[in-house]
Each structure stands twice: as structure tokens, then as C-alpha cells.
Amino acid sequence: MKTILCLLLITAAPLLSAQTAGEEEDRFTDTNNPHKAFWSASLSGGSYLVALSKIVSVSKHEYLLDGNLIITEVVIDTVGDSTVRIYQITPAAQGSNLQGAKQVVERGKELLDRVGQRTGTDPNHVVHKTYPLTTHSKIIEFRIDDIQVLNALHGSVQSAWVSGKGRRFVAR
Q1: Using H for helix, E for strand and C for coil, what is the string for the chain?
Q2: Contact present, 119 and 64 (Cβ < 8 Å)
Q3: pLDDT, averaged across the chain
Q4: How much is the average pLDDT of 124-131?
Q5: pLDDT number for residue 79
Q6: What is the per-residue pLDDT across 29-72, written as a single tens digit (0 to 9) for each?
């Protein structure tokens, strides 16, 4: 139960922030890549560059984790040993009409804000792992806090791969 509550608290902050239409346009850019045969991404957790000819598949799927978190994940599988997973987390209680669930999510946001202020890190963009359960060799992982940015990233890599024209995706 502690693990579930911790995950809920960790993921609550990005879900409660409202954004205006102007802010929406500033969350990411998707442009032609000067390196025409590559797709690249600059994300808060790092960067990724892949040759379009080495991509084997691009997928996006959703799953329920421990009955409490909805994970939306983009997977880029490549020739070779590495797979890239880029995901966004939403507490299942986020869409609930229950006041208690909303209060838990709000409390989680407050706690995350405090942790971020004390540590100088943004827990909304950090990949969360529990050693050894979620540590996988040859898996490259990124976390994005906004589902619309994740959807745009999926569209960018899929478009680049299908068209054979390089793209550069930058999330802020």
C-alpha cells in the first residue's frame, strides 16, 4: 500500500497544473532534423538519437499499473540491443468524481512541490525505478509529464520513420 501511495504522490503534480493555449505551444517543438537520416529527441531526462534505418517498430500503448496508475508508453524498438521507452503517468483517481480521491492527488502535488524545492530536482520528469525490479539492461527510459507532449512525440517519431525524413523533437 505504501508503494502505491508513493507512486500516486510522485505522479500527481503534473496532472493538476492547468495550462493556457499559449503555454501549450511552448511545451515542445517538432522540426526537420538537419541530420536527415535521424530522429532525435531532447527531453528533460536527457537526449536520444537514432538512425531511421535502425528503427524496427514504433508503438504507443496504455496499461494499468497496480490498479492505481495509468501508464501511457511509447516504445521505439531498434536493430541492436537497445529499446527506448518514453512514458507518462496518470493516477487512476485523477478522473474520479470522488472528492477523497481528488484530495489525495492534491496532497501528493503539495508533497512533490516541497521535495522538489528541497532537493532542487523535478520529480515529475525523473524516471522512477525500484532496484532490481524495474532496472533493465539495454532499456533507455524517459518520463514525460504531459500526455499531449507524449502524443506529439509519438507522432514525430512515427512520421520520421514512415517518411524516411529526419525530425528533431524537443520537449520543455
Answers
A1: CHHHHHHHHHHHHHHCCCCCHHHHHCCEEEEECCCCCEEEEEECCEEEEEEHHHEEEEEEEEEEECCCEEEEEEEEEECCCCEEEEEEEEEHHHHCCCHHHHHHHHHHHHHHHHHHHHHCCCCCCCCCCCCCCCCCCCEEEEECCCHHHHHHHHHHHHHHHHHCCCEEEEEC
A2: no
A3: 76
A4: 57
A5: 94
A6: 998 877 789 999 999 889 999 999 999 999 999 988 877 788 99
CA nearest to 56, candidates 81, 23, 35, 21? 81
The pTM of this model reads 0.69
Give, in degrees to the nearest 5, the angle at Cα 140 between 82 and 75: 80
- Domain boundaries, given as residue ranges, for the chain: 22-93+124-171
Query: Chain centroid to CA 25: how far?
Result: 18
CA end-to-end distance (rounded Å), the chain: 33
- Exposure on the CB side of residue 25, measured as CA atoms within 13 A: 2
**pLDDT tens digits along 4-25:** 434 433 444 343 334 444 555 6
> Which residue's C-alpha cell is 525523473?
126
